[in-house]
Amino acid sequence: MNNPDETRKSLLRPCTAKQCRYTRREDLHQLESRCSEVCLPGNRIKPGSSIHPCCYDCVPCSEGEISNQTDRESCMKCRDDEWPNEKKDRCIPKLLEFLSYTDGISKVFITASSLLCIVTLFIMGIFISYLNTPIVKANNRNLSFVLLVSIFLSFTCVFLFLGQPLDITCILRVMTFGVIFSIAVSSLLAKTIMVYIAFKATKPGSYWRKWIGSKLSNSIVSLCSSVQVIICLIWLSTSHPFKEIDTHSYQDKIVIQCNEGSVIGFYSVLGYMGFLAAVSFLLAFMVRTLPDSFNEAKYITFSMLVFCSAWIAMIPAYLSTKGKYMVAVEVVAILASSAGLLSCIFLPKCFIILFKPKLNTQSCLLDRKNIYK
């Protein structure tokens, strides 16, 4: 193979005086006739553009390539984990992209999640303090605490989505929020069913009286949540999520992200969660017109509307983004849906407990006219 310097010199053989101009060659300490500028680092020679063999053009190196010497005939390609600098004369490491704790958007998520956790604990404290009051007892205390704990855990699981992904965090991300939200939505479904049964049981000699109690509600939550756990276990046993390093989506960045492994498993978890939410919404919508002593179905209807809207809006945004912004979309959906459940279900009760204690009595609770005075 010919030496590149010898090849270059052969291309730069002297031209006529009209064709060439003189430039000083500092390295040779002599005058050499040539009709082209010196190709600086970051460029390469493009011969054959002129009828004179000593003439050539200098063109910049292509994307992902560098030239660290003058008058190079070809550029060198950088490694997959490197990218040329602005001058294209050397390769530099690509930037690592993931939703780190120091990002501005991550700080917003941390602040929002922390504040919502505090609010959830505050509401939980109110319910414990007023545990035996009518408004707390009337809406199934056990299910209320299960729902509050689920909402609290959903806010804390946001931290699993921040920081550099690992195999274990990739597995815990989807599994955690999938199971937690299934428990929360199952609790709302059980609440709605118990509202319907409680109304039916008010009739003398009703068959529904024997179904009143915590056993049925606990069974509904356990059964519905177990299905989601089984889906997650099947997903883990077949093709679980894992850490993925993407060097091709961006030219100057390396994206560190979680690969779902099985796309069917991922959408099965979301689909089952959506199925529970849809059933709970439809059932709550049908029983929303029951007497006001059991009017929690109205709040469940609105909370499920907010919940479903957040996750339906997430899907196209999730599919149209890449890298850390895809993770940010998931976090927004988690925070929005959890905050919707918390505000729609518990804030009206807390308002009555704290600011209208006269309405928190058995007589007022059963009087539909006094509830909204």
Radius of gyration: 34 Å
- What is the number of helical segments per DSSP (H or I, 4+ residues)? 10
**Biggest sheet features:** 3 strands, mixed
> From the helix content, strand content and strand pairing, which structural class follows?
alpha+beta
Question: What is the correct CATH architecture of the largest domain?
Answer: Up-down Bundle
E-strand count: 11
The CATH homology group name of the largest domain: Rhodopsin 7-helix transmembrane proteins
Shape: elongated
Order of helices and strands: HEEEEEEEEEHHHHHEEHHHH
Helix content: 40-55%
Mean pLDDT: 78
- How are the strands of the largest sheet arranged? 9-11-10
Note the beta-strand portion: 5-15%
Compact description:
This protein is α+β, with helices and mostly antiparallel strands and 373 residues long. It contains ten helices and eleven strands.
Question: Can you describe what's shown?
Answer:
β3 and β4 (56-60) form a beta hairpin. This protein starts with a helix and ends in a 7-residue tail after the last helix. The protein is elongated, with a radius of gyration of 34 Å. With 373 residues, the chain is an alpha+beta fold. The chain has two domains: 4-93, Tumor Necrosis Factor Receptor, subunit A, domain 2 (Ribbon), CATH 2.10.50; 104-366, Rhopdopsin 7-helix transmembrane proteins (Up-down Bundle), CATH 1.20.1070. The model is unreliable at 4-33 and 368-373 (pLDDT under 50). The chain has ten helices and eleven strands. The protein has helices spanning 4-11, 104-129, 134-137, 141-156, 167-200, 214-239, 263-286, 296-319, 324-355, 362-366; strands at residues 21-25, 30-34, 43-47, 56-60, 65-66, 76-77, 82-84, 91-93, 95-97, 242-246, 253-259. The strands form five sheets. Strands 9-11-10 form a three-stranded mixed β-sheet. A two-stranded antiparallel ribbon has the order 1-2.
